Amino acid sequence: MAVIGLSRNKDTLESIRVAVELAGGLGIKKGSTVLIRPNANTADPPPGSTNPEILKGAIREARKCNPIKIIVAEKSMTTLDTEMVLRKLGLWQAAEAEGANEILTFDHMKRYHMKPDGASS
What ranges do the domains of the chain cover? Predict the structure, then answer.
C-alpha cells in the first residue's frame, strides 16, 4: 500500500516539506543518483506543466537525503526544443537556483526499446 502525505499551505515549499514528512520521507538512499523529471511536455503554464516552485521543493527534499547527484531531465513533445520549454517555464532556472548537478534534455539522446521479462507488449 502506498503512503501519501497531503499538505495545503499557501507556501508551496513548506507544503512540499510537510507532505514529504507526512509520507515518511522520500526513501532515497544516501549516495544515490536522483533523477527528477518535471512535466514540461509543452510550454503551457501550470497546471499544464510543473510549477517551478514544485521543482524547487522536490530538489530541496531530495537533497536532504544526501544523494551524490541530482539530475533534472525532461523531453518535451517532439516538435519542441526541450531546453527552450524548460527556460520559458522557469524550470531550468529553478533547477539551477536549487543546485541541481545536471540539467538534461532527452532531445538528442539515443533511445532504446526494451521489453522486460514477462511484459505483454
Answer: 29-105
